[in-house]
Amino acid sequence: MSADDQTRRGTTARALPRWVVLAAVVAVASTACQADQVGAPTTASSTQPDVPAVAAKVLSGRCAGGWVVPDASAPVPLTDPATPPGGAVQADQGLVVVTVQGHDRAQVVVEGMKVDIVARRPAVVGALLPTPCETDDDGPSRVFGVDLNDDTPVPTGRYDDDGRETGYPYKVTAVERGEIRLVPSVATDDVEWRLRLLWTSDGRQGETVVDDGGAPFHTTGTTAVTGALCPDVAQGAWVDPTTSTTCATKLSSATDAGLVGRWVRKTQELAVAPDGTVTLSDREGDKTRGLTLRILSVVGTTATADVVRADHDLVRVGDRYTLTRSETELVVEGAFLDGVWCSPTTDYPAGCST
Questions:
Q1: pLDDT tens string 145-183
Q2: What span is annotated as the signal peptide, if there is one (predicted)?
Q3: Is 235 within a domain?
Q4: Which domain holds residue 275?
Q5: 195 pLDDT tier (thresholds 50, 70, 90)
């Protein structure tokens, strides 16, 4: 690793962390402060009472994400979501679950979160081990997306199945603990990062630093993978997709699927980049609205993508779409983007010009 990589933003990058569950519940606190004081950030080594207890675990994701393993050959034993193969790094669209529990004196209110980037390098080269949908333990929680492509990422609340936004404030007690699920997105980088939890309790304010057992969280984009194995639940292993009758081949890039390029429809323009970033510009009179999606996986010529940024009153962060290439057309299915898009280099079919 170069000296520049090690000193990115003045912080020394650490070696690849061993992915384990942060099993210990840590109590953290700053010294007693006045109601208008902000306590210094606390860490997992603190033992003071009267502040939230926090635990974190790193998972492979829900029907997306997975692990990138530098050296992997099929078959690889299929483990539970929190126990990756040796040397694995969490892939884009994985999952970090943070459990927060209040103390016995007063409720704790989570007021916000911040992300500190520790190191940034090119995406990890290796085999992608995607997540089987059957392994996710979905439950009551608040879901946030965090775009690690930004220099200063800000976790953004997504919407639950009932259409309610999952934001702040978030109240927890000693009896009713809360669960925060973070879905990290990253395109072409390999990022190490930490989370800061901002909270108030009984007139006090504080910050709690959350990480992976003292090491930074570690998430990589999948644009440098050399191949993808397939999760075969029946066999209990990630296998070569060409040898399995239950697996579909997952391509490693939007380029392989023929999705990359410019597509147009009416007053809208959609662009698919090689790193899996999809941007939309929607012109309505003098106003231009836009949104950004990230491709999660590609099977054949069909990609699944989630909205990660939205400047549009009809689209929400977390909305899911599919994009399918058919000759010179791109068929998009979703709440707002539903329709046929066309290559601007060809004559428009009726579905694109009307």
A1: 888 988 899 888 875 555 566 676 777 777 777 888 888
A2: 1-35
A3: no
A4: 253-353
A5: very high
* In the predicted structure, residue 28 carries a pLDDT above the cut 60: no
Residue 272 contacts residue 254 (beta carbons within 8 Å): yes
CB-count exposure of residue 79 (10 Å: 0-12, 13-18, 19+): middle
Q: Do 296 and 331 reside in the same domain of the chain? A: yes
Q: What is the pLDDT of residue 351?
A: 54
Q: How far apart are CA 43 and CA 20, in angstroms?
A: 18
Helix (H, G, I), strand (E, B) or coil at 247: coil
**pLDDT value, residue 248:** 58
Question: In this structure, is residue 237 part of a structural domain?
Answer: no
Parallel/antiparallel/unpaired status of strands 95-101 and 76-77: unpaired
Distances (CA, A) of 192 to 8, 73, 209: 11, 26, 14
Judged on CB neighbours under 10 Å (0-12, 13-18, 19+), 191 is buried
| Same domain as 195, residue 51 | yes
